[in-house]
Write a structure and sequence with these properties.
By secondary structure, the chain is of the alpha/beta class. Helix content is 35%, strand content 19%. The protein contains nine helices and eight strands. The longest helix is centred in the middle third of the chain and has 18 residues. The N terminus is likely disordered.
Length: 315
């Protein structure tokens, strides 16, 4: 599985984490509305783009986790995607070895290359494994396991969580990034089309997400009460915290490019669920020759919130 996709990879999946489901505002990883199979390796540029843009929030989360678990020996990023967050964890925990786990080898190759560029390769490794089957063979149990918008791409989330717990050392910490708030880029009334466009896109996206979950192999319906699920698999839920990403207008070129990427994926992937007026509005918002488009308008921003749930394995 890639993170972070996405959040949600990169982020651990997690690039425009919409509805707390992930990248490109499209639940952990961008996708097509017409089908629910995602090839995360094809999403590599977007996953990296999102995770790098969202780095301020991930830095804040990592610093908070360092208060929870000051000196872990082994950190696992479960559903690491291209390793943006894996490498960030390596930087924030200079005494730790970091293992990036993902089901897509092209993303792991990118993670290893990033670790090399950032000078952390000597304590960085990767494991190719599908999270539905556990996180592969580790040299020793993890002291900190990070899973960012990767769990919701597994059919049986409770079973996957139980697998995470088996890979934790006694006293080990699981940090689960799921949920949060939808990402927003535009005012409610943009001056073109009907006000409330992003809320309507969210509704269509939620329908897609429900279908995506239902079609996963071994899909099990769970109430998304993450503290209760952590408790159900034997952890002690110790903390929940939400991290805000607030990139106000005027945006940097990188942030504006990300907004274009996300809105393009939404336009292409959710077209069947949107009415003609909203599609026409999206077309204008994406038209580089239209002064009302996100290419030019001064009021474009990026605002989202990501929630992390922490559970500790009994000693």
């Amino acid at each position: 599985m890639a993170q972070d996709h996405d959040h949600d990879h990169g982020s651990g999946h997690g690039p425009a984490q919409d509805h707390g489901h992930g990248p490109a505002g499209n639940h952990g990883h961008a996708h097509s509305h017409d089908h629910t199979h995602m090839d995360f390796s094809q999403m590599l540029p977007m996953l990296v783009q999102e995770a790098e843009l969202f780095t301020p929030a991930y830095v804040e989360a990592a610093e908070w986790l360092r208060e929870q678990r000051p000196e872990p020996g082994l950190i696992v990023d479960a559903g690491s995607g291209p390793g943006v967050i894996s490498c960030l964890l390596a930087e924030k925990f200079p005494g730790a070895r970091v293992v990036a786990v993902d089901g897509a080898e092209p993303l792991l190759a990118e993670a290893r290359a990033r670790a090399e560029r950032l000078g952390v390769a000597d304590r960085f490794s990767t494991v190719e494994a599908e999270l539905s089957e556990g996180i592969g063979d580790l040299e020793y149990p993890a002291d900190l396991l990070w899973a960012s918008r990767s769990l919701h791409h597994v059919g049986d989330q409770r079973a996957a969580l139980a697998g995470f717990v088996r890979s934790l050392a006694p006293g080990g910490t699981l940090a689960l990034l799921e949920g949060g708030l939808p990402t927003r880029f535009l005012p409610r009334d943009t001056g073109i089309g009907r006000p409330g466009l992003e809320a309507r896109i969210d509704a269509v996206h939620d329908e897609w997400f429900t279908r995506m979950r239902a079609e996963l192999p071994g899909s099990v319906t769970e109430t998304e009460d993450w503290p209760a699920l952590l408790t159900a698999v034997g952890l002690r839920h110790t903390a929940t915290r939400t991290f805000l990403l607030d990139l106000p207008a005027p945006l940097s070129d990188e942030a504006r490019a990300f907004v274009r990427t996300v809105l393009t994926r939404r336009r292409d992937g959710l077209a069947d669920g949107l009415d003609a007026e909203d599609l026409a509005t999206l077309d204008r918002l994406l038209d580089p020759d239209d002064k009302a488009s996100v290419h030019h308008r001064p009021d474009v921003f990026v605002l989202t919130a990501m929630t992390v749930y922490v559970g500790v394995k009994p000693e």
